[in-house]
Amino acid sequence: MHIYLTAFIKAAPGKEAALKDFLLNMVSESKKEAACLRYDLQEEVGQPGSFIFHELWESEEGLTAHNSTPHIKAFAAEAPNLLGAPVQIIKGHLVTK
Question: pLDDT tens across 44-55, in order?
Answer without folding.
Answer: 999 999 999 999
